[in-house]
Amino acid sequence: MLAAKAKEMKDRGEDVLSLTVGEPDWQTYPKACEAGIQAIRDGKTKYTASQGVPALRKAIAQQMKTLTGQDYNPANEVAVTSGAKFVVFSAFISLLDSKEEVIIPAPFWASYSEMVDLAGGVPNIVKTKFENGLKITPAELEKAINPKTKIFLLTSPSNPTGVEYSAEDLKGLADVLRKHPRVAIVSDDIYNQLSFSERGISPHLLQVAPDLRDRVICVNGASKAYSMTGWRMGWAAGEKSIIHAMVSYQSQTMGAPSSIAQEATIAGILQCDADLAETRKVLKERCAHAYEAFSSIPGMKIAKPDGAFYLWIDVSVILKKLNLKTAKDFSQMLLEKQKVVLVPGDDFGDDQCIRISFVVDRKTVDGAVARIKTAIG
Length: 377
Ligand SMILES: Cc1ncc(COP(=O)(O)O)c(C=O)c1O
What we know:
four-stranded antiparallel sheet, about 45% helix, seven-stranded mixed sheet, alpha/beta, 13 strands, single chain, binds pyridoxal-5'-phosphate
């Protein structure tokens, strides 16, 4: 609603500063674009296998080795779909029986709980704490698991916090998961190549607990790392019976992913490492700037991100000062009085927080910070 209102204001020519976007503000890398164009010229414009073309599955399997240390068979352990969002849903629908639970650490990407509902399951939301770096602890995970638990959903780095789980964190969670062999793990790795660490890649559960391989479904895609949100490319890697179930579901719903986008993604994965390295550098600089700028606003408590492109900010002190109840009220006020639009945390499972996205230029960040300071007084 806020985004729609902001758009209306922008369309009227008003000077709105938006920190809401969930996608990179740069173009898809040239080599991926060229491969897409070439695919059209070569007539690769027809249905492909529902599971995706073999060359892309092979490229994904190669990348999975780097990201997780695991070998996946491109023939039956990798499936390509239209966007990672569909992969997550396809995993839920394939794994969940009626009323089975999915443990979702909060704050969480808003779509997860809706997707669990749609798949007939029940979200079991576990609120994480700032003092634990907004990560679920092994004790919290253990406490949340019950006879109805079917899936543990892990997102690292996270949307909306940008926080990533360290190898140590993951080892702790793996120790708990080992005790509960019924529980599958959906690992949403969509931001894991946008880590600010030396390696540029976030630690993965399977690197520290390869024994869990057969019950981990890895989700990834081209949207964020390759700036290909509009191409709609996502994929899953996992044990073959799970992948088989997901592909069966896909083939009767999505059909097959775009043939053109698949060719572009092959080039993205195999030829765009240098672009990706530059992306990480730019994001890291932008993050440092946005973190510093927002930290200068009195009353904002910010989780320092390890990757992705979001800041998650506790504004409860400010809400109190302004006599406002929720972040939604705060966001509404900022839009009306200062023409700044950001995302209230209500939809991510915490109404005392906001999410800002720093895939914008410095001028926008600095302008927004100045206006927010004026609004707070
Ligand atoms: C955590 C997370 N997972 C998955 C997705 C979906 O990505 P895709 O564009 O591949 O559907 C998003 C997009 O915002 C996301 O933030």
